[in-house]
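Team,

Forwarding the record for the chain on the shared tracking sheet. I've put the sequence and predicted structure together so nobody has to dig through attachments.
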Amino acid sequence: MLTPQGSRLAVWGDPIEHSRSPRMHGAAYDTLGLEWSYGRRQVDAAGFEGALAELDETWRGLSLTYPLKSAAFAAATTRDDRAEATGAVNTLLLEPDGARGFNTDVGGIAAALREEGIHTVDRARIVGAGATASSAVVALGELGARRIEVVARRPEAIAPLITLGESLGIAVTAASFAASFDPVDVSIATLPGEAAVTDAAADALAAGGGLLLDVVYGHWPTAVAAGWKRAGAPAVSGLGMLLHQALLQVRIFVTGEVGTALDDEPHVLDAMRRAVVGD
């Protein structure tokens, strides 16, 4: 394992008091026998650069959530392929020669779908065109998707996802909530938990929508997930995505690489899951 430059870690964002990351990461490092600290700090986009400059050699890394993923992307001196594709960094590994940036949301989405038995995808649908939608496009592409429909209220918001799809060899098309929908293998909802979606729209999305992975985990069921519930169709919250993206962050902080598995990784993941399940 990599010898750490420091032993201090934290999650930054605004708001941040709701974050479950300290509990998940704390459980992981306890299981690994590492005496590392992992805290949280409220940092907004305007204050990010200054806060980052304050960190000394006792710091090992940061997890970044809304609204800091673009700022973290800009701050990283090197980035992994997933971060480059999405323009978003949610993990910074702080090293003497600069910060290395990673996007673990992509891997978290893909792993959460695999955990639900989705190993290959042809047609998929994404509901919402916000920041997480880019990670969803890349994750679906890694599972083999070649056709992705994005449903959003503002057509202009879908344009960057169409461009991203073109770079990955994926046909991304736009649709509105008023459209009729063709069947797909899987749906990913990336809307905020409080987003208003009519029952009629949610029901139309659920009909032939395959498994729903809704990235929201604290506000459940969402209006979109309620449509799947009424249809008796399978739907899962974003807790699986949260766990698996955090596991990849732990890999980065401990080994220095997102692709290097931890010692006894299933045991570590189980400890992280127990730290948050039941809330």
